[in-house]
From TrEMBL, chains A, B:
Gene for this chain: fapR
Residue ranges constituting the HTH deoR-type domain according to the UniProt record: 11-48
Domain of life per record: Bacteria
InterPro entries in alphabetical order: DeoR_HTH (IPR001034), HotDog_dom_sf (IPR029069), Transcription_factor_FapR (IPR017275), WH-like_DNA-bd_sf (IPR036388), WH_DNA-bd_sf (IPR036390)
One GO biological process term: negative regulation of fatty acid biosynthetic process
Pfam families: HTH_DeoR
Protein name: Fatty acid biosynthesis transcriptional regulator
UniProt keyword annotations, A-Z: DNA-binding, Fatty acid biosynthesis, Fatty acid metabolism, Lipid biosynthesis, Lipid metabolism, Repressor, Transcription, Transcription regulation
Gene Ontology MF terms: DNA binding; DNA-binding transcription factor activity
Parts forming coiled coils: none
Amino acid sequence: MSRPSSVKKERQSVLLEKLTQDPFLTDEELAEIFKVSVPTIRLDRLELGIPELRERIKNVAEKNYTKVKSLNSKEIVGELLDISLGVGGMSILETDDSMAFERTKIIRGHYIYSLAESLAIAVIDADVALVGVANIKYKTPVYSGNKLLAKAEVKKVRDNKYIVWVNISHKQVEVFRGKFILVSLEKDFYDSEK
Amino acid sequence: MSRPSSVKKERQSVLLEKLTQDPFLTDEELAEIFKVSVPTIRLDRLELGIPELRERIKNVAEKNYTKVKSLNSKEIVGELLDISLGVGGMSILETDDSMAFERTKIIRGHYIYSLAESLAIAVIDADVALVGVANIKYKTPVYSGNKLLAKAEVKKVRDNKYIVWVNISHKQVEVFRGKFILVSLEKDFYDSEK
C-alpha cells in the first residue's frame, strides 16, 4: 500500500493532466473525480501553483493573445488558452442563450464554426491568413451553457498554403471536427487591393 | 429597325431579368448597362411597378420571413429575398467594416459562412433543422462594403436528411460555394433533451 504523501503526489500529477485535457474542470468536479473534498482540491491547486478556474482562463488567454500574428485579439471568437504559431493551439467558448436557437436552445452552427475558424487562423505563422476551403462536421448538438474546448493542429505547410485540423469538444466528447485549408497573403496583395 | 416602343419593351424585359439576377443593381448601374439616362430607368421601373432598391429589398424580405419554419426572423443572417420551402431561396448581406479584418478590410469568413448557413437552414421544410456536414470554398476575398447575394437550392431530400447547395456572389462573381447536409429533428428529440 502507498503512503499518504505518495497518494497525494499521484493525485496531483493526475490533477495536472486532467486540467490540461479539460481546463474547464471546476474544483467541485475535480473533487468528485478524485473522491476527495473540495478543500483538498484547493490545497492541491495551491501547492501546484494553479489558480482557480476564472483566473486560470484569464491568465493564459492574456498571455496568448500577444503571440498571434494573423488576428487582433478582439477578432478572435473564444478565448485563447494556448498558442504555438505554426504548430497548434487551444481556445474555449462558453456558450449562452444569445448563441442558441430560441426554440431548442441548441447552439447555432455558425458560432461553433467561428470558434474553429478563428483558432485555425490564429495558429498560422503569417500576417494575413484566409480560409480557402473548409470541410466540417457537427457531430452532436451543443446546448446553451455548454463549455466548448477547441484544439487546432497545423498538419501541413507548403508555400503559402496551410492545412489545419480543428476539433471541438464538450466534456471530452467531440461535437465538431473540421479541416481548414488556409492561404497566407503577401503584404503587397492586400495593400494593393485597398 | 425596331420602333421606339418595341425598343423600350425589350429593354424593360431585359431589365426585369437583370434585377432577378442581381437585385442590388442601382438605377445608375442599370442606366449604364442600357446606355440610357437614369430618369429613363426610373420611368421603366415605374411602368413595371418595381420600387427602388432599398424599398425593393425591404418589401421582399418582410414577405419572406413569414414563410420560414425552421428559424425565427431575427435568427437569419442577411435579408431574405425569396424563399420556397423545400426548393430554394435567396438572401443578401451588405458587408461593412464591423465584419472585416481591421488590417486588410477583407470580410471575415465566418460572416459569409453564417449567411450561407442561415439560408441553407431557412429553405428546409421542417420545424428544426441542423447542419451536420458542410463542405465550403471561399473563392475570392470579399471586401468591406461589398454586397453579397446568396442563392440556395435544395438538391436532395431523403428521410430527415437534406442536401442544400449555396453559392454567394458579389456583382455576379462567385465568392463562396458550399454544400450543406442538414438533418431535421423531431419535436420529441429536442423537447426531451431540454
